[in-house]
Amino acid sequence: PSAPPKLTNLRYTEDYSYLRDPSKRTGAWWEPFKYIPLDSSGTSYLTLGAELRFREEAYWNFNWGEVPVDNYQWYRVLPYADLHLGPNVRLFGQMIGAWATGKETDVTGVDETGLEVLQGFGEFKLPLGDGADLTLRGGRQLLSYGSERLISLRYGPNVLRSFDAGLASVEAGPWRVDTFYARPVRNKVDSFNDRFNEDRSVWSVYATRTLEEISPTSGIDLYYIGYRNTDAEFNQGSGDEVRHTLGSRFFGKAQGWDWNFEGMFQFGSFDGGNIRAWSVASDTGYTFEDVTFSPRVGLKANIISGDRNPDNPDLQTFNALFPRGKYFGEIGLIGPYNLID
């Protein structure tokens, strides 16, 4: 690249190696922090960064009147360091400091976690020839796929969700295929006590193909996600849940239009019963680029299955696995279960 990368919520996807060429530097105040050379060739370097956030939230008739008024503040700091040791090896670390004040309801690990290691992983990249690369990554990391309907870093609430995971990724031409096994990190209120959740695990093969013939930002996803929760709870009761998700997403932008369609089918078992669940999601819009403020007119429609009979051991409730914390906008009162939206 010859210009700064787009800032992302993951942070480790940002590449500042272009600053190795002095002719591409602009003298901006932040450039010395993004590229700190560690050898004469400049292939080993350090990138530093941080994010600060203050958020005020207020609810009236919170939880349908069970709490009269809830007005509270969230504070968050996310510093990181990205160490590149030559072109193929890197170490990435990111801390989180997250606190809440004034919260009348229970403070949980989603509100506050003190100081913790949010990300800490090693990565090795192996060229395979013909423009293909294999990336191996192990350690604590943020994972985000597709529209984050099923696997998300939970950026909206105060404490992001990370995973202890091993991941292998192959990029070849228009294709990228990721496969991983992970356990979600269980967030607790105090500092340096977050550990992976022994009850829950997830594994996946997730393939994405760009559709250049439509536009550079268009593509299709095909994926399988396996999930187990040994202590799952539904209206039938609690038990061992093993769930498999097959899905596909078609997305893109072209000539002012944008679209994002996704279909998901789930099967498996829960506490002796069979799981059969599904969801269809859509988001279509048109942006008037030549009009002041470039307004967008859009339509979202979603159907998410729910259970037919709590007295029957078979389960039809869709499980969104690890979704965004702010799934239907900024209010977090409704989750993606048993719903037509």
Task: Give the tags.
341 residues; mainly beta; 18-stranded antiparallel sheet; globular
Please tell me about this protein's structure.
- The chain has 341 residues and is mainly beta.
- 1% of the residues lie in helices and 53% in strands.
- The protein has 1 helix and 18 strands.
- It has one helix spanning 31-34, and strands at 36-37, 45-49, 52-62, 67-77, 80-84, 89-101, 114-129, 132-141, 163-172, 175-186, 195-196, 200-210, 219-234, 237-254, 257-270, 273-287, 296-304, 339-340.
- It has an 18-stranded antiparallel beta sheet that branches.
- β3 and β4 (67-77) form a beta hairpin.
- The model has no long low-confidence stretch (mean pLDDT 93).
- Helix/strand structural class: mainly beta
N-to-C span: 41 Å
Mean pLDDT: 93
Strand content: over 45%
Helix count, per DSSP?
Answer: 1
Record field, number of beta strands: 18
Q: Unreliable stretches, pLDDT < 50, 5 or more residues?
A: none
SSE run:
HEEEEEEEEEEEEEEEEEE
What's the quick description here?
The chain is mainly β. It has one helix spanning 31-34; strands spanning 36-37, 45-49, 52-62, 67-77, 80-84, 89-101, 114-129, 132-141, 163-172, 175-186, 195-196, 200-210, 219-234, 237-254, 257-270, 273-287, 296-304, 339-340.
